[in-house]
Write a structure and sequence with these properties.
With 239 residues, the protein is α/β, with parallel strands linked by helices. It has 2 domains: 126 residues, Rossmann fold; 63 residues, Jelly Rolls, CATH 2.60.120. The protein has a 10-stranded mixed beta sheet with strand order 5-4-3-2-7-8-9-15-11-13, with helices on both faces. A 3-stranded antiparallel beta sheet has the order 10-14-12. Strands 1-6 form a two-stranded parallel sheet. One of its GO terms (molecular function) is kinase activity. This is Thiamine diphosphokinase.
């Protein structure tokens, strides 16, 4: 993590993948599927309610606690609740900046308020050094690292959405990235398609979001170098 990260609560450090749950919509199997891959559970504020409703007590809860009612809070050991009162960051950011893990799967952060969801994508860029994958109903979203290689079937939808001015190179895309200056106000890269085989994307700077159909989460994990973490759950179907 960068030197500008405020350490205003104890860190959650582990050698396994972490599932980070938020207070947004969850499909019935979202949490269990995420935990099959990333077995350590951390909640962002009201996400603790979803965990408790599933019969799981989160190992840590980070946030300003404005969405965690007294009844739910009483069911979580006090030493696991880390209230961070500043209002300059979101609960997603408060949680993510305190997690030290090989990778994070974030569920319950999409599909509700648009401003909340946009703030999550801002958080992916602001914490670009964290390997976090946001899992939604249809898609997975991650911050594109400096270089990534993905094995994807021909015709797979692959979207790129810039959060700042960036350029890049690619192989294996129907519409190559070379020669294009991406910027959220001028040029975006949604609805590209793969040509088959390995897709490589190289970015010149942080700021690009990579969006793929949810079914291709295993390919993302493999590309992230985290495949060994998920070997026991290789049969999990992300559809």
């Amino acid at each position: 993590m960068g030197d500008n990260v405020p350490l205003d609560a104890p860190l959650f450090s582990c050698s396994e993948g972490v599932t980070l749950v938020g207070g947004g919509p969850l499909a019935p199997d979202d949490l269990s599927q995420a935990l099959a891959l990333a077995p350590r559970l951390v909640a962002a504020d009201g996400g603790a309610v979803a965990a408790l409703d599933a019969g799981i007590v989160p190992e840590a809860v980070y946030g300003d606690m404005d969405s965690l009612g007294a009844a739910a809070r009483a069911r979580v050991p006090a030493d696991r609740i880390h209230a961070i009162r500043e209002q300059d960051s979101t609960d997603f950011d408060k949680a993510l900046r305190h997690i030290r893990a090989p990778a994070v799967l974030a569920v319950g952060f999409t599909g509700a308020r648009v401003d909340h969801e946009l703030s999550v994508y801002h958080g992916l860029v602001a914490r670009a050094e964290t390997r976090c994958i946001v899992v939604g109903a249809s898609d997975v979203v991650m911050h594109a690292p400096p270089r990534i290689a993905l094995d994807l079937p021909q015709g797979t939808r692959l979207s790129l959405f810039p959060m700042s001015g960036v350029t890049g190179l690619s192989e294996g895309l129907e519409w190559p990235l070379a020669g294009h200056a991406f910027h959220p106000a001028t040029r975006i890269g949604t609805s590209n398609r793969t040509t088959g085989g390995t897709v490589t994307i190289t970015m010149d700077a942080p700021g690009m979001l990579l969006i793929l159909p949810r079914a291709h989460l295993p390919a993302v994990l493999t590309a992230y170098g985290a495949a060994s973490l998920w070997s026991r759950a290789s049969g999990t179907a992300w559809i």
